[in-house]
Amino acid sequence: MMTKKNRLIAFVLTLAVFSSVFAFSYKDRLFEIQKNIDIFTTLYREVNRSYVDEVNPNTLMKTGIDAMLNSLDPYTNYIAEDQIENYRTMTTGQYGGIGALVGNRNGKTIIIMPYLDLPAYQSGLRIGDEVLKIDGISLEGKDSDEVSKLIKGQAGSKVKLEVKSYGGKESREVSISRENIKIPNVPYQGMVSSEIGYFKLSEFTNNASQEVKTAVEELKKQGAKKLVIDLRGNPGGLLNESINICNLFIPRDLEVVSTKSKIEEWNKTYRSLNEPLDTEIPIIVLINGRSASASEIVSGVIQDYDRGVLVGQTSFGKGLVQTTRPLSYNSQLKVTTAKYYTPSGRCIQALDYTHRKEDGSVDKFADSLRTAFKTKNGRVVYDGAGIYPDISVNAQTQSPIAAALNNKNYIFEYASEYASKHPSISTAKEFELSEAEYQAFVNWLKGKDYDYTTDVEKSLEELEAKAKKEKYYEGIQAQIQSLRSKIASSKIQDLGLYKNEIKAMLEVEIVARYYLEKGQTEAFFRHDEDLKAALALFNDMERYYKILKGNK
């Protein structure tokens, strides 16, 4: 039997061995870092000196850095000095510009959306206008990034745009004073019924929590007794804003999120520090596969505390926290420093970047590795694959013909065509194309190229390829050709078969010409299956509370 003295000696020896191993490991790692930096430096110098063609040293280094960081995860990025302004726009939602979304449509630079009461709109720019020149510089052949750099600038400075209205023959010059443009985190709020308020939260930049608070207060003044929070398509943003938003709906001093890092002092637990806005109002949160990061913190907290019901599709699954670190020459590194965990203890990270395959691809965490956790009321939730909704709704997908019409920009173009011939329409929520108006669109498409490949055609091509490979093609060639003819004949009828889907897309796009972004949101309400499911649940409050108690 080991004596107390022997146990103490053993402990000291173990500690000494561990310390020496750790010290060796640290020194060894430091040597490997120094060695590889030296190799990289000499390689970089030799390539720049010896390569047969001239090499841009900045481009070469940026390529090397990006490739190195891409081997970690998609969120660890090098931000060069000339990219700092774009990064600042992403995190603050603020930039110096004209207040319009500008994009490329069939090789032309087009105003996609001027924002109400901002310089572009006030200067008369409208959806569908083509921008030909900026400050005398032709935009022919320029991509969206190049156009954006020309439009943005110091607040108070002027920019001259040569534009041509849709259908117009003559261009005109528009002089616009740039302003500090703040992209709203809450682009829409409104009542969807006499007692149900709705707001869309599109980002988590500075002041997002205050915007949410204001939206909720306004909706309650308008009679809202229930609340729909739309986080669909929200990629996330600032961690502190997600914490403050959660704090609006849960009591003070509850855990909101914790972060765990390999650096112990970076491990933190964040709690709700303020008095909440409303801990009682029934809440439904809409999520989908593009709801990520901060969106998942908010939806995860709402679910973990059984504070509301989640409706839609499984979220993206980004449980990683990024921190910005300063580098030399005014550049920065955005680096993943921790994983975050919701109050129940789950990390919702879906992709395992620490175990890449040899080809560089990344797998999702296996279902067998997922761990069960429990909400406040004892409902079972899981980690490792995003946030699962309490009520799943099939994702709305586009038919091949609708996707083709959209990709060819015929939906966008016809909306401008329609607006050029109709001075006004009914309200955004009420507007609907008549049968005759839809037929006018069908007629307008005649002679236009919108060829597309259906899933059946893709399967037929695969069958044909396999048949040729396995020497069966001659025996089934006639049947394959017959099927191909029948499919081509059926595609002619697709404008009628998928009329409701195409008509809905047209209506939303046309409404934007008259009521801008707010109108688009309202026009989509009657086609929104997730929102319909949320409203149906709010009309059955017994079921709503059963779900929160764990009884569906």
Overview of this protein structure:
With 552 residues, the protein is α+β, with helices and mostly antiparallel strands. It folds into four domains: 36-70, no CATH class; 94-182, Pdz3 Domain (Roll), CATH 2.30.42; 188-395, 2-enoyl-CoA Hydratase, Chain A, domain 1 (Alpha-Beta Complex), CATH 3.90.226.10; 397-552, no CATH class. The protein is built from 17 helices and 21 strands. Strands 10-11-12-15-16-21 form a six-stranded mixed beta sheet, sandwiched between helices. Strands 1, 13, 14, 17 and 18 form a five-stranded antiparallel beta sheet that branches. It has a four-stranded antiparallel beta sheet with strand order 6-5-7-8, covered by helices on one side.
Question: Could you list some keywords that capture this structure?
Answer:
six-stranded mixed sheet, 21 strands, 4 domains, five-stranded antiparallel sheet, 2-enoyl-CoA Hydratase, Chain A, domain 1, alpha+beta, about 550 residues, Pdz3 Domain
Q: Based on helices, strands and strand pairing, what is the structural class?
A: alpha+beta
How much of the sequence is in beta strands?
Answer: 15-25%
In total, the number of domains comes to: 4
Unreliable runs: 8-23
Sheet with the most strands? 6 strands, mixed
Report mean pLDDT, rounded to a whole number: 86
CATH class of the largest domain: Alpha Beta
Count the DSSP helices. Answer: 17
- Provide the CATH superfamily of the largest domain: 2-enoyl-CoA Hydratase, Chain A, domain 1
Approximate shape: globular
Q: What integer value in Å does the Rg equal? A: 28 Å
Strand order of the largest sheet: 10-11-12-15-16-21
CATH architecture of the largest domain: Alpha-Beta Complex
CATH topology title of the largest domain: 2-enoyl-CoA Hydratase, Chain A, domain 1
Please identify the oligomeric state.
single chain
Q: First CA to last CA: what distance?
A: 59 Å
Helical coverage, percent range: 40-55%
How many β-strands, per DSSP?
21
